[in-house]
Amino acid sequence: MRILAAMSGGVDSAVAAARAVEAGHDVVGVHLALSRAGGTLRTGSRGCCTIEDAMDARRAADLLGIPFYVWDFSERFREDVIADFVSEYQAGRTPNPCMRCNEKIKFAALLERALELGFDAVCTGHYATLVHAPEGLELHRASDEAKDQSYVLGVLTAEQLAHTYFPLGTTPSKAVVRAEAAARGLTVAQKPDSHDICFIPDGDTRGWLAEKVGTQTGDIVDRSGAVVGSHEGAHAFTVGQRRGLSLGMPAPDGKPRFVLEVRPVTNTVVVGPKDALATAEIAGVRRSWAGRAPASDAFRCHVQIRAHAEPVPAHAVIGSDGVVVRPDVPFEGVAPGQTAVLYEGTRVIGQFTIDRTVSAAPLPV
């Protein structure tokens, strides 16, 4: 196959490209420039797609003996990922920019260009597996559960999966990948994994949002509506948050309070006890299926609501109002804007963006 290897500058994508070459494919490496700040530097494990990452990717491609290019996707990234992130927070939702990047950039914009240029597939260093089942191509969890990234790939469609290549999916551990990189002479063998939001490398999401949308004083209220504090912008809060509330009035029982709801229209943040975070139902309209659609409109599955959350057994129903999921055991701290990924065993069924939640804890009388 003719394969375009997306090379981030990290060890996973470098080894994935190396395995594609070793498998006999015609491989070309590409690094995506997602920021117009050309002199951006990397700080330890924070951030990605920096000038140093581009140089690391080029060195890996040179060692592998494959052509290498840098493609400027910064404008598309700004519109589809960064602008979406800001607007979602302004609407009181909690977005996942990695999901949006996979959906809009790596497996949409990049894949579209790859196909236009005659490539058969895009290769990445994601930890997930593709299975050719009798019913069609399926996306499954990786062998290494600790590194499994099938959750952030849940947005991929059947057509996109048909043109993807995940060489690391059956690798038993990240340690094996690092050892292989060292044996191949790749200088990124011990490079730290990137984490946090790539376009907020210092990790200060609240400060970054304040610069983008400004500040506006509003009330923090309890579940009865009583004002218990104030804030400088509802966009800085998310459901389940405990730190940074600065409440002027302690709870009657002396226990800590958590963000239960963000109301952007009134610039209000609602707080309450931890047990009020229990969620009995989630639902959403915007959905996609990773391969074949469910055979029935009502089915059992496991649902994962965060990249590293435990999957929860649940009952799902597809109707005119979208996908409705009722977990056997309540979720904790679910925020609108998060992505719910549905599984059947290790297979990814599909995903939806959470629009609505129903609390499992009744309001106090």
The name CATH uses for the topology of the largest domain is Rossmann fold
Q: What are the segments in which pLDDT stays under 50 over at least 5 consecutive residues?
A: 38-42
Q: Please tell me the overall pLDDT.
A: 90
Strand content: 25-35%
**Secondary-structure class:** alpha+beta
Give the overall form: globular
The total beta strand count reads 20
SSE topology string: EHEHEHHEEEHEHHEEEEEEEEEEEEE
Helix content range of the residues, please? 10-25%
Number of helical runs? 7
CATH superfamily of the largest domain: HUPs
The overall number of domains is 3
User: Distance between the terminal alpha carbons, to the nearest Å?
Assistant: 65 Å
Q: The biggest beta sheet, please?
A: 9 strands, antiparallel
What is the alpha-carbon Rg in Å?
Answer: 22 Å
Question: Which CATH architecture of the largest domain would you pick?
Answer: 3-Layer(aba) Sandwich
Describe this structure as you would to a colleague.
With 365 residues, this protein is an alpha+beta fold. It folds into 3 domains: 2-184, HUPs (Rossmann fold, 3-Layer(aba) Sandwich); 215-272, SH3 type barrels (Roll); 277-359, Beta Barrel (Elongation Factor Tu (Ef-tu), domain 3). It has 7 helices and 20 strands. The chain has helices at 11-22, 51-64, 74-90, 97-116, 158-161, 174-184, 205-213, and strands at residues 2-6, 26-33, 68-72, 121-123, 129-133, 136-140, 164-165, 218-221, 227-231, 258-263, 268-272, 278-284, 287-289, 298-304, 312-319, 322-327, 331-332, 339-344, 347-353, 356-359. It starts with a strand and ends in a 6-residue tail after the last strand. Residues 38-42 have low confidence and may be disordered. Keywords: ATP-binding, Cytoplasm, Disulfide bond, Nucleotide-binding, RNA-binding, Transferase, tRNA processing, tRNA-binding. The record marks 126, 338 as: Interaction with tRNA. GO terms for molecular function: tRNA-uridine 2-sulfurtransferase activity. Residues 286-350 form the tRNA-specific 2-thiouridylase MnmA-like C-terminal domain.
